[in-house]
Amino acid sequence: MSPKVTLIAAAAENNALGKDSDLVWHLPDDFKRFKALTTGHHIVMGRKTFETFPKLLPHRTHIIITRQENYKATGAIVVNSLDDALSYAHDDDNTYIIGGGEIYAMAMQKATHIELTRVHGNFEADTFFPEIDEKDWKLIKEEFHPKDERHKYSFTYLTYARR
Questions:
Q1: Class of 4-133 per CATH?
Q2: Tens digit of pLDDT for each residue in 95-108?
Q3: Adjacent-strand bridge partners of 18
Q4: What CA–CA distance (Å, rounded) separates 37 from 48?
Protein backbone atom coordinates (compact mmCIF):
# COMPACT_ATOMS: atom_id res chain seq x y z
CA MET A 1 0.00 0.00 0.00
CA SER A 2 1.33 3.45 -0.93
CA PRO A 3 1.87 6.02 1.77
CA LYS A 4 -0.89 8.55 2.34
CA VAL A 5 -0.51 12.15 1.24
CA THR A 6 -2.93 14.29 3.20
CA LEU A 7 -3.81 17.92 2.64
CA ILE A 8 -4.56 19.45 6.05
CA ALA A 9 -6.13 22.90 6.28
CA ALA A 10 -8.70 25.13 7.93
CA ALA A 11 -10.76 26.94 5.30
CA ALA A 12 -13.89 29.07 5.45
CA GLU A 13 -17.04 28.33 3.47
CA ASN A 14 -15.67 30.57 0.70
CA ASN A 15 -12.39 28.54 0.89
CA ALA A 16 -10.54 31.46 2.52
CA LEU A 17 -7.34 30.30 4.23
CA GLY A 18 -5.70 33.52 5.28
CA LYS A 19 -4.85 37.14 4.67
CA ASP A 20 -1.50 38.92 4.80
CA SER A 21 0.30 35.65 5.71
CA ASP A 22 -1.90 35.01 8.74
CA LEU A 23 -5.03 33.06 9.61
CA VAL A 24 -8.22 35.09 9.92
CA TRP A 25 -9.55 33.11 12.92
CA HIS A 26 -8.22 31.45 16.06
CA LEU A 27 -9.54 27.93 16.82
CA PRO A 28 -7.59 26.33 19.69
CA ASP A 29 -9.20 22.89 19.19
CA ASP A 30 -8.17 22.93 15.53
CA PHE A 31 -4.56 23.69 16.51
CA LYS A 32 -4.66 20.70 18.90
CA ARG A 33 -6.04 18.46 16.17
CA PHE A 34 -3.38 19.66 13.71
CA LYS A 35 -0.67 18.86 16.25
CA ALA A 36 -2.13 15.42 17.05
CA LEU A 37 -2.39 14.45 13.38
CA THR A 38 0.95 15.80 12.12
CA THR A 39 3.28 14.98 15.04
CA GLY A 40 5.80 12.34 14.01
CA HIS A 41 5.29 12.97 10.29
CA HIS A 42 6.75 14.99 7.44
CA ILE A 43 5.01 18.32 6.87
CA VAL A 44 5.36 19.93 3.44
CA MET A 45 4.82 23.64 2.99
CA GLY A 46 5.71 26.60 0.84
CA ARG A 47 8.38 29.06 1.89
CA LYS A 48 5.87 31.81 2.74
CA THR A 49 3.96 29.46 5.06
CA PHE A 50 7.21 28.38 6.72
CA GLU A 51 8.23 31.99 7.29
CA THR A 52 5.05 32.61 9.34
CA PHE A 53 6.22 30.11 11.99
CA PRO A 54 8.02 31.55 15.02
CA LYS A 55 10.10 28.32 15.14
CA LEU A 56 10.10 24.75 13.84
CA LEU A 57 7.08 22.74 14.95
CA PRO A 58 8.32 20.06 17.36
CA HIS A 59 8.52 16.37 16.43
CA ARG A 60 7.89 16.90 12.71
CA THR A 61 10.19 16.87 9.68
CA HIS A 62 9.76 20.17 7.83
CA ILE A 63 10.05 20.17 4.04
CA ILE A 64 9.92 23.58 2.39
CA ILE A 65 9.18 24.08 -1.29
CA THR A 66 10.65 27.26 -2.78
CA ARG A 67 11.68 28.62 -6.17
CA GLN A 68 14.62 30.40 -4.50
CA GLU A 69 17.82 28.62 -5.51
CA ASN A 70 19.90 29.22 -2.37
CA TYR A 71 17.18 29.33 0.29
CA LYS A 72 18.34 27.99 3.66
CA ALA A 73 16.21 27.02 6.65
CA THR A 74 18.02 25.61 9.65
CA GLY A 75 16.54 22.28 10.71
CA ALA A 76 14.40 21.90 7.59
CA ILE A 77 14.76 20.23 4.19
CA VAL A 78 14.55 22.69 1.29
CA VAL A 79 13.43 21.51 -2.16
CA ASN A 80 12.31 23.11 -5.41
CA SER A 81 9.33 20.90 -6.30
CA LEU A 82 6.47 18.94 -4.80
CA ASP A 83 7.86 15.72 -6.31
CA ASP A 84 11.19 16.30 -4.53
CA ALA A 85 9.34 16.98 -1.27
CA LEU A 86 7.35 13.75 -1.56
CA SER A 87 10.45 11.74 -2.44
CA TYR A 88 12.11 12.94 0.80
CA ALA A 89 9.05 11.73 2.70
CA HIS A 90 8.68 8.40 0.85
CA ASP A 91 9.17 6.31 4.01
CA ASP A 92 6.49 8.20 6.00
CA ASP A 93 3.13 6.39 6.13
CA ASN A 94 1.34 9.77 6.00
CA THR A 95 2.89 12.96 4.69
CA TYR A 96 0.95 16.15 5.43
CA ILE A 97 0.72 19.08 3.02
CA ILE A 98 0.14 22.13 5.25
CA GLY A 99 -0.02 25.03 2.79
CA GLY A 100 -0.19 27.61 1.51
CA GLY A 101 -2.74 28.05 -1.22
CA GLU A 102 -0.34 27.49 -4.14
CA ILE A 103 1.07 24.33 -2.56
CA TYR A 104 -2.43 22.94 -1.86
CA ALA A 105 -3.41 23.55 -5.50
CA MET A 106 -0.24 21.81 -6.70
CA ALA A 107 -0.71 18.85 -4.34
CA MET A 108 -4.45 18.30 -4.93
CA GLN A 109 -3.74 15.80 -7.75
CA LYS A 110 -1.25 13.81 -5.65
CA ALA A 111 -3.21 13.77 -2.41
CA THR A 112 -4.95 10.61 -1.18
CA HIS A 113 -6.78 12.31 1.72
CA ILE A 114 -7.94 15.73 2.90
CA GLU A 115 -8.34 16.74 6.55
CA LEU A 116 -10.30 19.96 6.31
CA THR A 117 -11.58 22.10 9.13
CA ARG A 118 -14.49 23.97 7.53
CA VAL A 119 -14.87 27.27 9.40
CA HIS A 120 -18.50 28.36 9.19
CA GLY A 121 -18.42 31.85 7.77
CA ASN A 122 -17.07 33.78 4.80
CA PHE A 123 -13.93 35.82 5.22
CA GLU A 124 -11.93 38.33 3.26
CA ALA A 125 -8.70 36.61 2.25
CA ASP A 126 -5.82 36.62 -0.20
CA THR A 127 -5.12 32.88 0.00
CA PHE A 128 -7.65 30.16 -0.74
CA PHE A 129 -8.01 26.38 -0.53
CA PRO A 130 -8.78 24.69 -3.87
CA GLU A 131 -12.32 23.46 -4.61
CA ILE A 132 -12.96 19.87 -3.53
CA ASP A 133 -14.53 18.09 -6.48
CA GLU A 134 -17.11 15.61 -5.14
CA LYS A 135 -16.57 13.31 -8.13
CA ASP A 136 -12.91 12.86 -7.07
CA TRP A 137 -13.41 12.90 -3.28
CA LYS A 138 -15.66 11.03 -0.88
CA LEU A 139 -16.52 12.48 2.54
CA ILE A 140 -15.76 9.68 5.03
CA LYS A 141 -16.02 11.50 8.36
CA GLU A 142 -17.71 14.65 9.64
CA GLU A 143 -17.65 16.18 13.14
CA PHE A 144 -19.40 19.48 13.94
CA HIS A 145 -18.21 21.85 16.70
CA PRO A 146 -20.44 24.77 17.76
CA LYS A 147 -18.93 28.12 18.65
CA ASP A 148 -18.19 28.52 22.35
CA GLU A 149 -16.22 30.73 24.75
CA ARG A 150 -12.92 29.62 23.16
CA HIS A 151 -14.09 29.48 19.54
CA LYS A 152 -15.61 32.57 17.92
CA TYR A 153 -16.86 30.49 14.95
CA SER A 154 -18.48 27.10 14.62
CA PHE A 155 -16.54 24.62 12.49
CA THR A 156 -16.70 21.08 11.16
CA TYR A 157 -13.87 18.57 10.79
CA LEU A 158 -14.24 16.92 7.38
CA THR A 159 -12.20 13.91 6.29
CA TYR A 160 -12.12 13.04 2.60
CA ALA A 161 -10.60 10.09 0.76
CA ARG A 162 -9.89 10.02 -2.94
CA ARG A 163 -12.52 7.99 -4.85
A1: alpha beta
A2: 999 999 999 999 99
A3: 127
A4: 22
Nearest to 114 by CA among 3, 39, 9: 9
Question: Torsions phi, psi of 139, nearest 5?
Answer: -75, 120
* 2: confidence class by pLDDT, cuts 50, 70, 90: confident
* pLDDT tens string 15-46: 999 999 888 999 999 999 999 999 999 999 99
